[in-house]
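As a warm-up, study this chain.
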Amino acid sequence: MPGMDTLQEIFENMGEGFNPDRAEGVDAIFQFDLTGDNGGKYWIKVADQKAEVYEGEHESPSMILTATADDYIAMVNGDLNPMMGFMQGKIKVKGDMGLALKLQAIFDMG
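Now compare it with the structure written out below.
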């Protein structure tokens, strides 16, 4: 999904990068808390090899990814390596770390 400029654009198009085969056996809620000027909160339910995207906050997510909107957009566009971003503290993950690693494969990110 190269060249996306806004969170709304990224999350509206999340389904295009979804890879159902890689989501086999995943039943999880991914929460995205994205801060800064263009920030927002979104969550994705992945179950039965399908993904549903919602705006807002889920009450009991399996994993929470926190970053600035700009860093998240850079990661989605391939300008920020997810592992480097994590090690530099730009991307924070709470909850199931294994799901964070799967997230990249499930949605063809980075």
